[in-house]
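Chapter summary example: a protein plus iron/sulfur cluster.
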Amino acid sequence: MQLDAGVVTRCRRRVHLENDPDVVQAQSAPPDLVAEQRKADAAAHRRGVATALGRIVGSDLMEIPTGPDVRTADRERVTLAAMQAGTQFIWGAVLPRDESGGRRGGIDLLVKDSTGYVPVLVVRHKITDPGQGARTSSLAYPLPGASRADPLRRVRPQPRDQLRLAHAQRQLQAAGYAVRGRASGGVIGMDADVVLWHDLEAPTWPGGRTALSEYDARFSDRLSVAHAAAGGAEPLARPSRIVECKSCPWWPNCEQDLRRGRDVSLVVRGEDAVVLRRVGVPTVDALAALDPAKELTPLVGMPFSDAVVLARAWLRDLAVVRRVPRVDVPRADVEVDVDMESFADLGAYLWGSLLSGADVGEEHGYRAFATWEPLPTNDEGRSFGEFWTWLTGVRLRARARGLTFRAYCYNELAENRWLLASAERFAGQPGVPTIAQVKEFITSDAWVDLFGIVREQFICAHGKGLKTIAPVAGFTWRDPEAGGENSMRWYRDAVGMDDGEPNDPQRLRLLEYNEDDVRATHALREWMTSDAMARLPFAGDL
Ligand code: SF4
């Protein structure tokens, strides 16, 4: 049996399921289109780096053939032949299987240093931050020997990258092609401007461990899990709900198991479930039977008393419970619900708003301030300036009429980030506020984060996201696929990011999605200030 590098950062139960011949054919979740898009983006990024590198190093770069008709075994053979021939740079390497160590897999790039080969990974995320001290070399000299302490960059910790490099390093060692001496590995990141070099033997991991020692411990554990699964032995990994479950194709299987066992991880996640099992509370029923006022053990994800209430709510099939006897949501004469849509780190292309309440000489209803020029674009400054001018106008007119004003969003982190960033990036453009003006607004009573209110005043059994909580208030989105990740895909189509052809129906879809988001926050606060609150169960009564 051989496992790839992914197992060391994958859930242990998933490793079991992927190697258990009895469950391998069991039902799994439908394909995740967002994950597919992410994979396609990563492949396009790697292609771009390969092309750039080919231009720089020319014939010193050999590319291992790939494609649906090329067998992995053949790619392995060609990679081995290239290493035997001493090729300087090998792109798309598939390393020889490590039969005794149980490893298989490839690496984006192999570079030949004076005493052997060093693995280099190409990733589509940031690998450094502004600062100093990272060891980097330019793309023109992608070799650890050419690296220096970078005066402008510091390492952004990406443990997963280092573990993948460690896997390749062990494969190279097993094949006899690793650099003699200290193990290292390179990463080319999102910006693809330098190669960042990691010392895989530096004690930079918790407890003084190194990337290699951490990798070794995890890999040998996963190998045992896989062997037990494949051999039909007592499973070494049981399901337990963790953050990754949300996007895991095995969730239907695991959810069934967890529900059957009424597992405690259904109401508390990850490490809290581990802690509760350890103190003899393995099920939701056992947790619900405890006294919330007597803390059996401290939890990291939530106060112990909340965990008990959540368990009781789960048993009664209640999605939301009041934490407080009386829910308090600040309201105003003139109200605006705000929701912003952004695309990755490139910008905020849409500010949507819903005006309601007393008359301020503006038509009630939804307004969108958008740019449909592909981000990044200066036109974003134009739409942001128009949004801010309109919002400020409503606020000032309300004040002039002696009316109170409030604007609402759901989770201010995102909106605040882009309000401040837009003020900075588009300073001086018509209607764009100063950073001080934005700060005055977001720290004032006029800016209300409904997420904060939900967090403080409710206990939610299925999460606190707007898509989870607004339906409890009776709200539904028109688009059954509405969601942040999907909106990224729609945006690419809307502005023609992939084929250059803007897609108008996708723009309309984004506008409707954004309008429904602001209508959802409106519905939520109406619900939270209605008689419905009196009928909503109170935690103290459960
Ligand atoms: S659904 Fe969760 S517990 Fe099950 S394999 Fe996936 S990540 Fe692991």
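Key point: The domain at 334-535 is CATH 3.30.420.10 (Nucleotidyltransferase; domain 5).
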